[in-house]
Amino acid sequence: MTGAGKRLGRAVALRLAEEGADVVVHYGTSATEAAEVVGKIEEMGRRAVAIQADLRSVDGIRKLFLDAGNELGRLDLL
User: Fold this and answer.
1) pLDDT tens for each residue of the chain, 78 residues long
2) pTM metric for this prediction
């Protein structure tokens, strides 16, 4: 989930977790907020990981996908 540390992205990430999803919480600069969302998702019994990536560059996008795959194994929803 991109930008899941704040506002709409946060709400969507939490809702996906409520529905049973494990969630990648992407953030650009909001590490504290992303960590908070990860904690809330883990309290629901789901897996979550916060990953920092700069989505303004192809390398940043690749990093996000590689890190997400390494952490959670696969992506089912983007």
Assistant:
1) 455 555 788 999 999 999 999 999 999 999 999 999 999 999 999 999 999 999 999 999 999 999 999 999 888 787
2) 0.85
Rounded Cα distance, 41 and 37, in Å: 6
Enclosing H/E stretch for 35:
helix 31-43
Residue showing tokens 């709400």: 11
DSSP conformation class of 44: T
Q: d(Cα 41, Cα 58) in Å, to the nearest integer?
A: 28
* Tokens, residue 38: 């990860």
Angle at which helices 7-18 and 31-43 pack, to 10 degrees?
A: 20
Half-sphere exposure of 28 (CA within 13 A, CB side): 8
Spatial contact of 9 and 16, defined as CB atoms under 8 Å apart:
no
